C-alpha cells in the first residue's frame, strides 16, 4: 500500500506557541524533548514505517524547516516535502493534500510518541473501509498505564472511555470533505455547537452523554457525511499523549527516556 503522510506543524492562529517561546525557538515543532526537536521524533517514526512512501510537512516557516530537515535527515528513506501552511487548519490540510497520492495519514508535529508499530497498526485498521476516513483513539486504561498524568480528557461511550491520538486517515479525495469539520479551528469535538451543525443533534447527544458503543457513534456520523468513519483503537496508550503544554512536555520527556532506556537494554 502507498500512503502519503501529512504532518501539520503550523502555528495556531499565527501566534508563537508558549513552549516555543520558553525554549527560544521560532516554531513549536522545534521545541526539544527527549534529546531532539518534536518534529524529528515524528519524522523518524514515519520514515521507518513501511507503508509510508512520502511525507509532507505543512508549516509557516518553510525555508527554516527545509534547512532543519536537510541537516537532520540528509538522506531520508522517502521524500520529505515542506509546504506553506494556510491561515486555518482545514486549508493547511488541503494544501498538504494537493496533488498527493491517496490514502493520506495525517498527524501533528507534536505527536512525539508516534512509533512505526503504531503507524502500521493504525493503517491496518483504517484501510479496512475503502474510501472512508478514520481516527486513532486509545482506551483510558491504556493511556493511564502509559502515564497516569499523560492525558486528562476522555470521551465516554457505553463500551469505554477513549482519548484522541491526533492521527487521521483519509482514504480518497472525495472523503477529504471531512476536513471541513475543522474549518472553524481546533478540535471540533470540544465544541457541541460544531457537532450539532455538522453531524446533527442526535449525534451531539450521543457524544455528550456517551450513548452507544464508540464505533456505532462514528457509524452515525458516517451516515450523515456519506462515507464510512472508523475508529481505530491503538494498543499503545502513549499515542494519546502529545506535547500541548508544560505538563505533557514533561510527561513525554519521561516516556521517551524510558523508551530509549528499554531500547538500549534490549
Secondary-structure blueprint of this entry?
Elements: E1 3-8, H1 18-23, E2 32-33, E3 36-37, H2 38-47, E4 52-59, H3 62-72, E5 80-84, H4 89-97, E6 104-108, H5 116-126, E7 133-139, H6 140-146, E8 155-157, E9 160-170, H7 192-199, H8 201-209, H9 214-225, E10 229-234, H10 246-265
Parallel strand pairs: 1-4, 1-6, 4-5, 7-10
Antiparallel strand pairs: 2-3, 6-9, 7-9, 8-9
Helix pairs in contact: 7-8
What does this protein structure show overall?
By secondary structure, this protein is of the alpha/beta class. The protein is 39% helix and 21% strand. The chain contains 10 helices and 10 strands. The protein has helices spanning 18-23, 38-47, 62-72, 89-97, 116-126, 140-146, 192-199, 201-209, 214-225, 246-265; strands at 3-8, 32-33, 36-37, 52-59, 80-84, 104-108, 133-139, 155-157, 160-170, 229-234. The strands form 2 sheets. Strands 1, 4, 5, 6, 7, 8, 9 and 10 form an 8-stranded mixed β-sheet that branches. It has a two-stranded antiparallel ribbon with strand order 2-3. Strand 4, helix 3 (62-72) and strand 5 (80-84) form a beta-alpha-beta unit. Helix 7 packs across helix 8. Residues 184-189 have low confidence and may be disordered.
Amino acid at each position: 500500500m502507498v500512503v502519503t503522510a501529512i504532518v501539520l506543524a503550523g502555528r495556531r492562529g499565527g501566534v508563537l506557541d508558549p513552549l516555543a517561546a520558553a525554549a527560544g525557538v521560532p516554531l513549536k515543532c522545534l521545541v526539544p524533548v527527549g534529546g531532539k526537536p518534536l518534529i524529528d521524533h515524528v519524522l523518524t517514526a514515519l520514515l521507518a514505517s513501511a507503508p509510508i512512501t512520502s511525507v509532507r510537512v505543512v508549516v509557516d516557516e518553510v525555508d527554516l524547516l527545509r534547512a532543519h530537515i536537510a541537516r537532520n535527515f540528509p538522506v531520508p528513506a522517502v521524500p520529505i516535502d515542506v509546504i506553506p501552511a494556510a491561515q486555518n487548519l482545514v486549508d493547511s490540510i488541503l494544501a498538504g493534500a494537493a496533488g498527493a497520492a491517496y490514502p493520506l495519514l495525517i498527524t501533528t508535529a507534536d505527536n512525539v510518541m508516534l512509533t512505526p508499530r503504531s503507524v502500521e497498526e493504525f493503517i491496518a485498521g483504517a484501510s479496512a473501509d475503502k474510501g472512508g476516513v478514520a481516527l486513532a483513539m486509545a482506551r483510558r486504561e491504556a493511556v493511564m498505564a502509559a502515564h497516569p498524568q499523560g492525558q486528562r480528557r476522555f470521551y465516554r461511550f457505553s463500551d469505554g472511555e477513549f482519548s484522541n491520538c491526533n492521527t487521521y486517515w483519509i482514504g480518497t479525495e472525495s472523503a477529504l470533505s471531512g476536513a471541513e469539520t475543522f474549518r472553524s479551528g481546533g478540535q471540533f469535538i470540544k465544541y457541541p455547537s460544531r457537532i450539532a451543525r455538522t453531524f446533527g443533534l442526535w449525534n451531539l447527544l450521543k457524544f455528550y452523554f456517551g450513548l452507544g458503543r464508540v464505533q456505532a457513534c462514528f457509524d452515525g456520523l458516517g451516515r450523515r457525511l456519506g462515507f464510512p468513519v472508523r475508529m481505530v483503537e491503538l494498543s499503545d496508550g502513549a499515542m494519546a499523549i502529545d506535547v500541548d503544554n508544560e505538563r505533557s512536555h514533561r510527561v513525554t520527556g519521561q516516556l521517551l527516556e524510558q523508551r530509549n532506556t528499554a531500547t538500549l537494554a534490549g
